[in-house]
């Protein structure tokens, strides 16, 4: 066989053994010596490495620097496994060995498997910067560059020693993370020694470094920011200001010593952003200043961060005093008034920090990531640790074990989550070891996935096995809110078979209270009613509720949501389609929880038409139905109950109830904007009025024993006419009739009045659904005038007596129901009145302005805040609608585009005609939309209409949530509204009043 053939054979054999590049592997082995290719022990160790090619390349480079390493590896199997295990995982540590070839010797002999103590780590790193470890406050040597490089080299040598024990299984995850934390603390001590050399006044202050986050909990990663807080006190006789200045310089110097880049690289960032006031606050504070801040101003997330606080460097006595001082405040955080809002804000912040393109591969912040588990464990500690001191642990795994022992988490659940957490942390370490870079994203390259899988001992299909195992653990972790928060609540009230531990009723109440339920005892009763028993319904509810309790907790009113769910379930619980919908359609169940926990109005609609829950399962069901379709269905109902007008209208009101629910849901979930909502509600009211009118006409015709002697039409006015109805709007209308040829005027008028009165009666009948009150007060002469007029009577009145306000009111007039031809004649008759050729004169303008000023002064309810009244308040609806209507009265005679009953359409047309600056239109439209949304939200949330933003903070917060603001966004909501209306008022003063 030729040499070339032998090379090809060897290269192929190496490739089959696990090397990605067999030819290069053969060349590198040849470079190691002729015996290397045939050294089965060496080859076996290389092939067993996570990435054989990387291990061989790094070994070849190390051998160039120190050839003796090969002999030592042949002589000692442990050294061979440890060294090649590290080199096959970490290119960065291989690079370190190339620069510091003697460091491999620490992986040989008994010292290689012995864990160093924290004192040993501290002494080694302090000595590396040229300081005396025996000194109470060591000072680094005079050579600054040597000290910085020495710290980094010594740190990485210790990292190498730890990684070798880690990859060979000598040291488990808890020992790895605690040693990394001790090593970080030692590096901070060495950094302080460097800082003292450069701060002559260092002796003026006592400085303690408090470890936070993973470092404080002794669960640090290989590469991670080290979170710290600094606390200082002056030495005896030293001015506090001077001492704090010295301590600040020391802290800054220590941070630079660790994070600055040198020829040996950098260690990691020292992050002090968790200090009081964050980056905006002073870097160093006294103990008293810390305590004052936490007592007065700290938020819940800051106490959550303090769960991990531990003195790690500097004056450990002072650090201990700090931890003792804040400890009790930490464990009272769950009793804080804003606890729930802060918890929800923290959950949102975690999710917001995930890049969309990395969400499914982010093992820290992504779905099913480490933060899911850590957050839940910490929150359970805050909730239950007030009364149970055994839960007061810093690290995640010990805290999870304590929660399990205390019965707050089921044993199987705790075991599964601990396994998921351990696996994800190990993946995190493997990712970071490769380049010693801070990363939490699982790669999508096959080569890197292969290295991860082989590091876990997966050899048959490392990529597939690793991916499957990772996804399984992530799925377990993602269910943590169900597992850690909600399922134990069921265990507290329902007899579930096979559970090893249940929450006590008191603990379940504490958890519900912490999640935002105002009446935990009532919530527990609802849970018991829904889940008790052995029926199929109870079994499905036990599956659904753990998730839905979380969705209710995220809603503005969790108690109302849970109560509403129980009531709907009581009505539909035996319906197979209902249980199947909630079980199989996650979107339907989540929407239902949100709607029930947000809107009393929608809940009331659903309780009276529970079958409407079916429309929650598909987006297509949340699109308002066409007016013609609704009209056809309503007409069929009226015909079906032709002999009973009350039943006919009750059937139509049932149709209206269902469509109101559809529109309310679509609006709350953001599928309709406020103009769409107004249009849908107005068209629905048109259909309802038409159906009630048909029923009334049929009834009056039967009573009169013949057809009506007159044509009859309903003219929509106000918000109905403008297609701007809200959920609480009345139907502002006028009634017009026209006697048939040959009919007596008196007979026709009597019939028309009978129809109008019957229409109003039918729509005002007591019922469980929201009423549609017909208001005819905008008719000529108001309540003093006749309820119904003929077309000619209207024409005569308007010709002789009409005032400017009536022309203004007619801008909204349109045909709504009844005889369409008569409606068109009425609209044609009023055209010159509302769109006068040449516009209105200045006297009419002054009259309209006086009327608006009078209305603001007299019609604003007593005690109402004019800044918060959405209709008549400053910058509210009237400040937008009246300027738009004044422009129409002045110019619509010449500008056809202004001839619309809609406010925003009129404003847009005014811009197009050059009558209003686009910037003014934008300001007015924003205020109109905002005020309209608030009016709808008030009705949806409270179940009753209102024009003023509530003064009650809880109600205001619920309205803000219904409008899409976060749980802590009530003040932002109010500020946004005041800003929008302030700008709108300024435009109205200029456009309407000419100011």
**Integer-rounded radius of gyration:** 38 Å
First-to-last CA distance: 104 Å
Remind me, CATH topology of the domain at 619-834? Beta Polymerase, domain 2
> How many E-type strands?
10
Domain Glutamate-ammonia ligase adenylyltransferase repeated: 82-318, 590-828
Family: Belongs to the GlnE family.
Enzyme class: transferase
Catalytic activity: [glutamine synthetase]-O(4)-(5'-adenylyl)-L-tyrosine + phosphate = [glutamine synthetase]-L-tyrosine + ADP; [glutamine synthetase]-L-tyrosine + ATP = [glutamine synthetase]-O(4)-(5'-adenylyl)-L-tyrosine + diphosphate
Fold and architecture overview:
- Residues 1-7 and 494-501 have low confidence and may be disordered.
- Among the domains are: 619-834, 2-Layer Sandwich (Beta Polymerase, domain 2), CATH 3.30.460; 842-991, Up-down Bundle (Four Helix Bundle (Hemerythrin (Met), subunit A)).
- Strands 1, 2, 3, 4 and 5 form a 5-stranded mixed β-sheet that branches. Strands 6, 7, 8, 9 and 10 form a 5-stranded mixed β-sheet that branches.
- The chain is elongated and about 125 Å long.
- It is mainly alpha-helical and 995 residues long.
- Helix 23 packs across helix 24, helix 32 (674-704) crosses helix 34 (745-764) and helix 42 packs across helix 43 (970-991).
């Amino acid at each position: 066989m030729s040499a070339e053939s032998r090379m090809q054979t060897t290269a192929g054999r190496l490739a089959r053994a696990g090397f990605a590049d067999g030819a290069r592997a053969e060349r590198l082995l040849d470079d190691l010596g002729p015996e290397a290719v045939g050294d089965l022990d060496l080859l076996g160790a290389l092939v067993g490495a996570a990435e054989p090619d990387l291990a061989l390349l790094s070994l070849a480079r190390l051998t160039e620097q120190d050839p003796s390493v090969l002999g030592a590896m042949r002589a000692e199997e442990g050294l061979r496994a440890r060294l090649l295990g590290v080199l096959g995982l970490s290119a960065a540590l291989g690079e370190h060995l190339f620069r510091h070839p003697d460091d491999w010797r620490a992986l040989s002999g008994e010292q290689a498997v012995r864990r160093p103590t924290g004192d040993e780590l501290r002494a080694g790193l302090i000595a590396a910067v040229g300081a005396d470890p025996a000194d109470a406050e060591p000072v680094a040597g005079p050579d600054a560059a040597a000290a910085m490089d020495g710290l980094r080299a010594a740190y990485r040598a210790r990292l190498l020693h730890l990684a070798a024990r880690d990859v060979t299984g000598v040291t488990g995850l808890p020992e790895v993370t605690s040693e990394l934390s001790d090593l970080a603390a030692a590096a901070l001590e060495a950094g302080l020694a460097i800082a003292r050399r450069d701060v002559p006044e260092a002796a003026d202050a006592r400085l303690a470094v408090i470890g936070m986050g993973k470092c404080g909990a002794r669960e640090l990663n290989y590469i991670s920011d080290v979170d710290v807080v600094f606390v200082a006190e002056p030495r005896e006789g030293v001015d506090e200001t001077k001492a704090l200045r010295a301590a600040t310089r020391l802290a800054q110097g220590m941070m630079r010593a660790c994070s600055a880049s040198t020829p040996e690289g950098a260690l990691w960032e020292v992050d002090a952003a968790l200090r009081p006031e964050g980056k905006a606050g002073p870097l160093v504070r006294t103990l008293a200043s810390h305590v004052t801040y936490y007592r007065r101003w700290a938020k819940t997330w800051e106490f959550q961060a303090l769960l991990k606080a531990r003195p790690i460097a500097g004056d450990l006595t002072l650090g201990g005093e700090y931890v003792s001082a804040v400890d009790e405040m930490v464990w009272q955080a769950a009793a804080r008034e804003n606890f729930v809002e802060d918890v929800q804000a923290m959950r949102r912040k975690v999710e917001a920090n995930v890049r969309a393109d990395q969400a499914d591969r982010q093992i820290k912040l992504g779905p099913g990531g480490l933060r899911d588990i850590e957050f839940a464990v910490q929150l359970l500690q805050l909730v239950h640790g007030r009364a149970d001191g055994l839960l007061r642990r810093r690290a995640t795994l010990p805290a999870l074990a304590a929660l399990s022992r205390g019965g707050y988490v089921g044993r199987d659940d705790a075991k599964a989550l601990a396994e998921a957490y351990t696996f994800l942390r190990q993946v995190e370490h493997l990712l970071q070891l490769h380049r010693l870079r801070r990363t939490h994203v699982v790669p999508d390259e096959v080569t890197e996935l292969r290295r991860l899988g082989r590091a876990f001992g997966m050899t048959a299909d490392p990529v597939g096995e690793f991916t499957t195992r990772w996804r399984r653990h992530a799925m377990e972790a993602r269910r943590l809110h169900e597992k850690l928060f909600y399922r134990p609540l069921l265990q507290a009230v329902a007899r579930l078979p096979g559970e090893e531990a249940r929450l006590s009723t008191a603990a379940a109440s504490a958890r519900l209270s912490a999640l935002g339920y105002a009446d935990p005892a009532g919530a527990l009763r609802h849970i018991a009613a829904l889940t008790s028993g052995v029926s199929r319904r109870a079994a499905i509810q036990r599956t659904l509720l753990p998730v839905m309790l979380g969705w209710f907790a995220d809603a503005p009113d969790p108690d109302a949501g849970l109560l509403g769910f129980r009531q709907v379930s009581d009505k539909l619980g035996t319906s197979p389609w209902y249980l199947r919908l909630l079980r199989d359609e996650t979107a339907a169940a989540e929407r239902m929880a949100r709607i029930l926990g947000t809107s009393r109005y929608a809940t009331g609609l659903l309780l009276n038409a529970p079958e409407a829950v079916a429309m929650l399962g598909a987006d297509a069901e949340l699109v308002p139905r066409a007016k013609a379709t609704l009209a056809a269905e309503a007409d069929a109902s009226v015909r079906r109950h032709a002999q009973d007008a009350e039943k006919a209208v009750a059937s139509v009101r049932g149709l209206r109830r269902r469509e109101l629910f559809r529109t309310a849901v679509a609006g709350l979930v953001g599928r309709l904007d406020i103009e769409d909502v107004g249009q849908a509600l107005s068209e629905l009211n048109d259909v309802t009025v038409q159906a009630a009118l048909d029923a009334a006409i049929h009834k009056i015709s039967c009573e009169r024993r013949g057809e009506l002697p007159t044509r009859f039409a309903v003219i929509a006015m106000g918000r109905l006419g403008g297609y701007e109805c809200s959920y609480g709007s009345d139907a502002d209308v006028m009634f017009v009739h026209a006697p048939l040829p040959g009919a007596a005027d008196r007979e026709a008028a009597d019939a028309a009045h009978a129809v109008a009165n019957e229409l109003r009666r039918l729509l005002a009948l007591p019922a469980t659904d929201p009423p549609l009150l017909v208001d005819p007060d905008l008719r000529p002469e108001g309540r003093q005038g006749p309820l119904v007029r003929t077309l000619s009577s209207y024409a005569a009145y308007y010709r002789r007596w009409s005032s400017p306000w009536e022309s203004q009111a007619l801008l909204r007039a349109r045909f709504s129901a009844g005889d369409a031809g008569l409606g068109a004649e009425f609209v044609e008759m009023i055209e010159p009145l509302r769109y006068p050729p040449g516009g209105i004169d200045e006297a009419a303008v002054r009259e309209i302005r006086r009327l608006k000023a009078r209305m603001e002064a007299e019609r604003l309810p007593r005690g109402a805040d004019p800044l918060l009244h959405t209709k008549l308040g400053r910058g509210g609806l009237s400040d937008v609608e009246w300027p738009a209507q004044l422009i129409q009265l002045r110019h619509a005679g010449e500008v056809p585009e202004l001839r619309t009953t809609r406010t925003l359409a009129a404003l847009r047309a005014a811009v197009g005609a050059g009558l209003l600056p686009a910037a003014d239109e934008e300001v007015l439209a924003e205020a109109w939309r905002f005020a309209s949304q608030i009016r709808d939200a008030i009705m949806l949330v409270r179940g009753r209409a209102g024009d003023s933003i509530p003064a009650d903070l809880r109600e205001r917060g619920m309205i803000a949530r219904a409008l899409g603001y976060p749980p802590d966004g009530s003040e932002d909501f109010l500020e946004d509204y005041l800003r929008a209306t302030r700008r709108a008022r300024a435009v109205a003063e200029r456009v309407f009043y000419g100011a």
